[in-house]
Amino acid sequence: DAKTTQPTSMDCAEGRAANLPCNHSTISGNEYVYWYRQIHSQGPQYIIHGLKNNETNEMASLIITEDRKSSTLILPHATLRDTAVYYCIASTTWGYQKVTFGTGTKLQVIP
Amino acid sequence: NAGVTQTPKFQVLKTGQSMTLQCAQDMNHEYMSWYRQDPGMGLRLIHYSVGAGITDQGEVPNGYNVSRSTTEDFPLRLLSAAPSQTSVYFCASSSDGQERNTEAFFGQGTRLTVV
């Protein structure tokens, strides 16, 4: 898996968009970008993934640069419940690869 | 559909004791894996399995054994517990299916303390 780099922590005002960046400059052509989050010490929760195109679901949007060396997870209207650690992972297929997590970005949503 | 179920949720062991952490999934997923998470750290892969009868080592396998006799279950065994194995353990499962890049589902974790 390609190495990913994320800021250690970020703050976001409640109701505003939270933009979480991720660098994956060594990503290969067949590696997807996955985002997960971990609230308190619960099990990680899948958010979204993408390969080349921007993706959107009910939780978030994923913007991947054209050269695929970086991406941004966007939570359009952050709530206090979005306070969590967010992990960006580059991997081909989840089951085949020895997927490891970095330390992620601790997002604090402020009232 | 319960997803991924881990038992027990909490456990205290004495050094040298053995135990098995249970993980079961009801989604017929081929892939299952075990992670440990130490305070302030990300998740590190211990062992994983790509199907019944097939397992392989992850990043930190020492001190742990696994087997996969059924699709549903993937137990993690600590042979002789050590304080360094105090951690939160997560089990995950995922499917290959038609689209080979699918999400992983995680259990709620087992909090293990070795004294």
Describe the structure.
The complex is a heterodimer of chains A (111) and B (115). Chain A is 0% helix and 45% strand. With 111 residues, chain A is mainly beta. Chain A has a 5-stranded mixed sheet with strand order 1-9-8-3-4, with no helix packed on it. Chain A has a 4-stranded antiparallel sheet with strand order 2-7-6-5, with no helix packed on it. The mean pLDDT of chain A is 91. Chain B is mostly beta strands and 115 residues long. In chain B, strands 2, 4, 5, 6, 9, 10 and 11 form a 7-stranded mixed sheet that branches. The radius of gyration of chain B is 14 Å and the shape is globular. The N and C termini of chain B lie far apart (36 Å). Classes of the chains: A mainly beta (111), B mainly beta (115). The A-B interface holds A 32, 34, 36, 41-46, 49, 51, 87, 92-96, 98-104 and B 4, 30-31, 33, 35, 37, 40-45, 48, 50, 58-59, 88, 90, 92, 94-96, 100-109, 111.
Spell out the key features of this protein.
heterodimer; A: 111 residues; mainly beta; 45% strand; B: 115 residues; four-stranded antiparallel sheet
